[in-house]
Design goal:
By secondary structure, the chain is mainly alpha-helical. It contains 34 helices and 7 strands. The longest helix is centred in the middle third of the chain and has 18 residues, at 368-385. The two termini are 35 Å apart.
């Protein structure tokens, strides 16, 4: 990972690397800010030339990759399978000669591509493949990779570079200030003196310093754009509006805007862009400056021309996006087209892209009821994509319009899900409980699922739950749980709520039934993935260890098969806890290490339940104490009472094993919770 501020020379270093990779295949891609919402756009840019090698991949991986790239229809491609497919594709491509992949401006790569490339980069091992990224600030997807931090030039080198491009006298005070302000940034040194008025060259008065460095560089490029002929500026604005870099598309759009081929020469002579086999800007800040220099009306005209020349059969999503940017106001036809784009994006696994399409679709909708529906759909997609603040904003937009009772209840449900996903443990249960109650008369299956979500949220909130604690949720759900339904969620809800309201003796038959059914072959893989975590809690509550382990092993295998990386760490952690209890510390440590590796790859953070238990059972004060203290602090801040309880309980085991019995008693008393009366000690579903 090459990291550094804009203009420090990251792209030059990547060009240097690519130019000297003799004997290697070189594949390149670059993130573009306007394509951040298009799922797998960056990955397609890098891997499209390699697809001839995809035939060698296992069928599930090959199909996942083809679906992600829109080459075939299919269910949503699992991110784990896409990551494995990319890893296999890179390895196959490097079979004849080494492969060097260079990805610039990774901070602007779409999330799905960044995740897949980060996944592959951590698993290349001995393959003759080099992956080199450059970014201003690396994202969590590439966390842990080796880094090369590119800093500015030393003062002497900066002075030499600055003087090499001066065309007139420069006051030493101005020179020293430029060097100090730019911290030796090469692009800034070259650009900030361009167009500098004589008064500022000689006296230093009024030298701009309040604007951030990248803004000042962009302003410098803006001054250079102003000096170009009007047609040339318009051509650069057009190229900036379409990040594909396709010269055929750009020139066809230019023809519709009456821009002649001669408009390119002044831009090339000024060193601002290239118009050859690909359309390229000298620097991303040139693209940004060009686009910003266009008025709102001009941007609409540019995007309108690009939409007209984009083939709807080949690239319907990009055409719809350009049409949306060209729309001067509400436009139902474009809004509907964007809605269709969102559906295609979701089928490819592009949640962020789907959310962006739906958000723009809602913004272009005039009818209040339809606008509210689309805003709610956009909020749901934003939540699934992890953009929680944006989801809340869209929920407010949805609530501003007329919603029927079901849609209004879905708003409450989504608010609760966002609170739970945000780690706000005490906020989620009452919101989800409210939604579940409203849904009872509207959609029984969704109401049951929402009660289960509320039950799970209350379980995690534990002592911090307040209103909407486990008892209140269970009592509220009992009426619905008693209504017979073949739905697996109904069976799980009945058993778990009865366990809380009436105790383990009364609930034992229902709990055993859940354990039997979920340990059998009658449950589908989808149902097992969705409800298996709570079902294994039912088996644990009646000490049915045989079925409990069988269910966990099946869940782990299913999660591996479908790439359910959100669920896999939970199941592996539970197996690690079991291994620690059985005294198989080596197996427990291996499962914990795998859990940590998957969590690091996905950027998820969960309390280290199994690690705390293993270290405490070993009596390892140096390892256990920091884990316990950090968990208590973080879980208290996040309202996750179950993690606080578990940490105190692990502290009691640690102190007891070390002979500090007073400390053990104090910790055990802090770990007391009503859950301990219904679940085996240390076996709460965590």
């Amino acid at each position: 990972m090459v990291r550094g501020e804009p203009g420090v020379g990251k792209t030059v270093l990547l060009d240097y690397l690519a130019g000297r990779a003799s004997g290697c295949l070189v594949a390149r891609a670059a993130g573009v800010q306007s394509e951040m919402e298009l799922a797998f756009a960056g990955l397609h840019q890098l891997c499209a030339p390699m697809l001839e090698h995809a035939a060698s991949l296992p069928v599930p991986q090959r199909e996942a990759l083809r679906t992600a790239f829109g080459l075939s229809a299919g269910s949503v491609p699992d991110r784990f399978l896409v990551g494995l497919a990319v890893l296999g594709l890179l390895s196959e491509t490097a079979g004849q000669r080494p492969l060097v992949c260079v990805v610039d401006d990774m901070q602007w790569l779409d999330y799905a591509s960044a995740q897949a490339l980060g996944f592959a980069a951590r698993r290349l091992a001995a393959d003759p493949v080099g992956l080199v990224f450059a970014a201003r600030v690396p994202g969590k997807d590439v966390a842990g990779l080796p880094e090369l931090v590119v800093a500015g030039l030393a003062e002497g080198d900066a002075r030499e570079l600055l003087e090499s491009v001066l065309t007139g006298p420069l006051d030493p005070r101005v020179r020293d200030r430029i060097i100090a302000d730019t911290h030796g940034n090469p692009l800034a040194l070259l650009e900030l003196t361009t167009g500098l008025p004589p008064a500022q060259r000689t006296g230093g008065f009024g030298l701009p310093g309040a604007v951030p460095l990248d803004g000042r560089i962009e302003e410098s490029f803006g001054r250079q754009l102003e000096a170009l002929p009007a047609q040339t500026r318009r051509l650069l604005q057009l190229a900036a509006a379409d990040p594909s870099g396709d010269p055929v598309l750009m020139w066809r759009a230019a023809g519709r805007l009456a821009i002649g081929a001669g408009a390119a020469r002044p831009a090339e002579e000024a060193g601002l862009g290239e118009f050859g086999a690909r359309v390229r800007f000298r620097h991303p800040l040139v693209r940004s400056a060009a686009y910003r220099s266009a008025s709102v009306q001009t941007r609409q005209e540019l995007h309108g021309a690009l939409a007209e020349v984009t083939d709807p059969a080949v690239d319907p999503d990009r055409r719809a996006w350009h049409r949306a940017q060209a729309a001067p106001g509400p436009d139902e036809e474009v809004a509907t087209e964007l809605e269709q784009c969102a559906g295609r994006a979701q089928r490819r696994g592009g949640l962020a892209a789907a959310a962006a399409f739906l958000e723009r679709s809602a913004g272009l909708t005039l009818d209040p009821a339809r606008r509210a529906q689309r805003a709610l759909a956009a909020a749901q997609a934003k939540h699934q994509a992890g953009a929680l603040d944006a989801a809340l904003f869209l929920l407010a937009m949805a609530q501003a319009g007329p919603l029927d009772e079901l849609a209004s209840a879905r708003v409450d449900l989504l608010r609760g899900q966002i609170a739970f996903a945000s780690g706000l443990g005490s906020d989620a249960p009452p919101l989800l409980l409210k939604a579940a109650k409203r849904l009872e008369s509207l959609n029984l299956d969704l109401a049951r699922e929402t009660y289960l979500s509320a039950w799970m949220a209350a379980l995690f909130a534990g002592r911090f739950a307040g209103a909407g604690d486990l008892t209140e949720v269970s009592r509220a759900a009992r009426g619905l749980a008693a209504v017979h339904s073949p739905h697996p969620a109904a069976m799980v809800l009945d058993a778990l709520t009865l366990l809380v309201t009436d105790g383990p003796v009364a609930a034992a038959p229902a709990l055993r039934q859940v354990a039997r059914v979920f340990a059998s072959d009658s449950i589908s893989a989808e149902e097992e993935i969705r409800w298996g975590w709570l079902a294994q809690a039912a088996a644990s509550a009646v000490w049915d260890d045989v079925r409990w382990r069988a269910m966990l092993a099946r869940q782990v295998q299913l999660a591996r098969d479908v790439g359910a990386l959100d669920q896999l760490p939970i199941d592996l952690g539970a197996l690690g806890t079991d291994a620690a209890w059985r005294g198989d510390f080596a197996m427990a440590a291996a499962l914990i290490a795998e859990t940590d590796a998957i969590s690091a790859a996905t950027g998820s953070r969960r309390p280290p339940f199994a690690a705390m238990l293993l270290a405490s059972l070993r009596g390892d004060q140096a390892e256990a104490a920091p884990l316990i203290e950090a968990t208590i602090a973080e879980a208290t801040a996040g309202g996750q009472g179950i993690a606080v309880t578990y940490a105190h309980w692990a502290a009691a085991i640690l102190a007891n094993g070390l002979g500090r019995y007073a400390d053990a008693l104090a910790a055990a008393q802090q770990a007391r919770t009503p859950l301990r009366s219904i679940w085996p000690c240390g076996r709460c579903p965590s």
